[in-house]
Amino acid sequence: MKNNHNKWLEIGTIVAPRGLRGELKVLSSTDFPERFEIPGKRWLQSSESWSPQPTELISGKSVVGKNLYIIRLQGIENRNQAESLRGYKLLVLDETPPELEQEEYHVSQLIDLDVYEQKTGKIIGKVVDIFTAGHDLLEIKLISDIEREVNQKKEKKVFIPFVYEIVPVVDIEQRRIEINPPRGLLDLSH
Fold this sequence. Notes:
Radius of gyration: 19 Å
CATH class of the largest domain: Mainly Beta
Strand content: 35-45%
CATH topology of the largest domain: Elongation Factor Tu (Ef-tu), domain 3
Number of domains: 2
Distance between the termini: 18 Å
CATH superfamily of the largest domain: RimM
Oligomer: single chain
């Protein structure tokens, strides 16, 4: 979930209209269902514009078994209006994040954390993004010894499942994550 500016937090992408009365299908990129279910101020952002536009969430409900929500926004009353919002990002202000349980983190807390291999203590990269696909995946930009020596900008990235067995240490205060990657996982970089 990309965060183009620290003030905004992307919570989903409008993927399609639903029905004829302006309902919208939203692919969620948040672990907090209340962001789609509790009415209130939200913002819409198109891919052509950085400036988010305010809107009002009227209602929302989850689609059982999927990472989708059906929502209604104020002023969107027919399928054509809903269709015009396809691809828009749904945002919230990042100033009042939901309460977290132990071992839960906000995306903004994890981006830019240094990633170390727990057994060797060697830095292997930095968290650059997080994706939700069944389990959350940390996108890590790898730093190789050769790239450090020559200071090249060639980027290699790898996706690490954000599960305790692989990511046992998240230390927000020290700005570091420690991982125990399964054999070969770091070789799958792109």
